[in-house]
Every structure is written in structure tokens, then in C-alpha cells.
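Q: C-alpha cells for this one, please.
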Amino acid sequence: MLGGDVRAGSQKNETYKLKTFSVLASPTIAYFLLKNLAIGLNINYGYQNSNKSEIVMEDVAVGAFLRYYLRFKRHGFFAEGIGQYGESRITYKYPDPLHFHANSESSFGQFSFGGGYCYFLNKNVSIEALYQYNKRNINEKTFPVKGNVQTIMVGLQFYF
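A: Here is the predicted structure, written as C-alpha cells:
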């Protein structure tokens, strides 16, 4: 199996007058151990930009995943679990010259699980929608963070 998923979104925080734009791309490659069970590798690249203080965040993560399919002719459902390790970089560029410019780099571990629906265009190609719940621990010395993110992604998969 070869393919990937993509997500794009925007957020608006009324309290801080903050607007953000984000995109996440996740290419995958997998091998079917059994008829409906695939094990594989994935790479995530995430980018987030804010209108306040020019805060830019980039993530790169590599991981392994396990996915189980239930297929009914052209329709299918799947469940998956992913473990990843990555690096995150945050750049702060304040527009006011009296404020500072700074960079912050950190590593993180992430576990995700979720499920989705796939529609098979033919026996080798499917379009999918995926919901994921991500649990992340960021290992930064000055500001460690634990948190979670929920995402909805769409993707295309090729089956060989």
C-alpha cells in the first residue's frame, strides 16, 4: 500500500484576536501481513502560522502504524494506531522592533489512534476520510508540553 493523507485548517481565537492556518501532510507505505491487516511507516510534516507576532511552527515526525480493514465491495472501514517520534521548531518574529526574535526546538513522542471510511474507485485505488486522536509529549527543557489534538484528514491510497 502506498499513499497518504492531508489536512488543512484554520482557527480563530476571539480572546487573543489570534488567527492560525495549519497544514499537515502524511505519506505512508505499508505491507499487508494478512488479507486485511497492514503494517507500515509514515512521515508527518506539519506547518502552522499565526497572524499575531509571526509565530511559525514546523513539525517533522517518523513512525510506524498498524491498520485493520473491513471491506465490503467498494466501501470499507478501517482502524489504525500510530507511534511516532519527531522534532518541532517554533520561530517567533515579532513585528515591533522592540520585541525579540527567537527560535525554539524540541523533540516529541506521539501516539495516535483513529478510524475511517474508504471508497474504492477500483480494486487498487481508494479515497479515504480519517479521524485521528493524537496524544503528544513535547520534551523541551524550558517549556515541556503534554497535550492532544483531534484531526480529520482526507487521503488517497494505492494497493498493490
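A few notes: The chain has one domain: 2-158. DSSP finds no helices and eight strands in the chain.
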